[in-house]
Design brief:
This protein is globular. The C terminus is likely disordered. The protein is built from 13 helices and no strands. The protein is mainly α. Helix 3 packs antiparallel against helix 9, helix 6 packs antiparallel against helix 9 and helix 9 packs across helix 13.
C-alpha cells in the first residue's frame, strides 16, 4: 500500500543478549544475600534451623521485638547524629578548601592534592590505639562528638578531592561576570558556584554519610556504653557468647540498610554526575 509507512524493526544482536543475561545473572547473585537477610528476619525463632528457604509462618513481630528487646532505638539515634554531624562538618571544611585549591594556583598545590590523596591510604584501624589514648585523656569516650570528629576527619580527604574536581570544571568566567555585576567573592561562591557544583556537593555528602553510617571499628572501640554505640555496634550485640539471635540480627540489618538505600536511590543521578566531574574537557 502506497500510504503505508514502513517501520524499521530494531534487531537485537546476540552479543547484546549475552551481555544482558550476564548482567541479570550478576545482579541476582548480588541480591540473593539481601533476599536471605529479609527471609531470615521474618522467620520465627523455632524455624531458624529449618532447611527450607521460605518459612512456614512469617513472624512480622521480629521487627517489633528488635526495638523493644534491645537498645536499637538509641543506637539508631546515635548513628543519625554521627552520620549527619560528620557529613556537615566535613562539608563545611572541604568546601572552602576545595574552592581555594580549584581557583588559586598557589605554590605547592599539586603536593597538597597528592597529600590529600595519600591520606586516603590510611585505615582507621591503624590509628585506633592512638585515638583511644587521646580521647581517653580528654575524657571524651562514649561521646557522640568523638565519633563525629573521627568520621569527619577520615572522610574529609575524599570530599576535598571530589569538590576540587567539580569546582575546577566550572568556568571561572561565570564568577568574574557575577563579580563585575557587584557580587563579592563569597556572593559569587554562594549564588553561582554552589548551584552549579551541587552534583559534586551531593556526591561528597552521600559518600561521607554512607561511610559514617556503616562505620563499625571506631564505634566499637570508642563507645563502650550500649546506649552510646552506633547502629552497627548495636546490631553486633545480638551475637552472644553461646547463642545468636538470628531473627533479630537480620531484622536489625534490614532496618539499618533501608535509609541508605532509599537515600541513594533518590539522588543516584547526581552522584553519577559528580563522580564523572573533570573527566571531559
Amino acid at each position: 500500500m502506497a500510504g503505508r509507512i514502513a517501520v524499521k524493526r530494531r534487531t537485537i544482536r546476540p552479543r547484546t543478549l549475552v551481555v544482558a543475561a550476564a548482567a541479570w545473572l550478576l545482579a541476582v547473585v548480588f541480591l540473593l544475600p539481601y533476599a536471605e537477610m529479609v527471609v531470615t528476619a521474618l522467620r520465627p525463632a523455632d524455624e531458624l534451623r529449618d532447611a527450607s528457604y521460605l518459612p512456614r509462618h512469617f513472624a512480622w513481630s521480629n521487627f517489633v521485638g528488635v526495638w523493644t528487646d534491645s537498645t536499637l532505638g538509641g543506637n539508631l539515634r546515635v548513628t543519625l547524629l554521627v552520620a549527619g554531624g560528620s557529613t556537615l562538618l566535613a562539608l563545611l571544611v572541604a568546601l572552602p578548601a576545595a574552592y581555594y585549591t580549584a581557583r588559586v594556583r598557589y605554590r605547592g598545590r599539586r603536593y597538597f592534592l597528592l597529600l590529600v590523596l595519600v591520606t586516603q591510604m590510611f585505615q582507621p584501624t591503624s590509628l585506633l590505639v592512638g585515638l583511644y589514648r587521646e580521647f581517653f585523656q580528654l575524657d571524651m569516650l562514649n561521646s557522640v562528638w568523638t565519633l563525629v570528629l573521627c568520621n569527619a576527619a577520615f572522610n574529609l580527604a575524599f570530599a576535598v578531592w571530589i569538590l576540587t574536581a567539580y569546582i575546577g570544571s566550572i568556568p571561572v568566567e561565570l564568577e568574574e561576570a557575577a563579580m563585575i555585576d557587584g557580587l563579592g567573592r563569597l556572593g559569587a561562591l554562594r549564588r553561582v558556584v554552589l548551584p552549579l557544583a551541587m552534583p559534586g556537593v551531593v556526591t561528597a555528602v552521600i559518600f561521607t554519610f554512607i561511610s559514617a553510617w556503616n562505620e563499625f571499628v571506631m564505634g566499637l572501640t570508642l563507645s563502650t556504653v550500649p546506649n552510646s554505640q552506633p547502629l552497627t555496634v548495636g546490631i553486633n550485640n545480638f551475637i552472644g557468647n553461646y547463642t545468636v539471635q538470628w531473627n533479630y540480627l537480620f531484622a536489625g540489618s534490614v532496618v539499618a540498610i533501608l535509609p541508605v538505600v532509599v537515600l541513594f536511590a533518590l539522588i543516584e543521578r547526581q552522584v553519577v554526575s559528580g563522580l564523572t566531574a573533570g573527566s571531559v574537557k
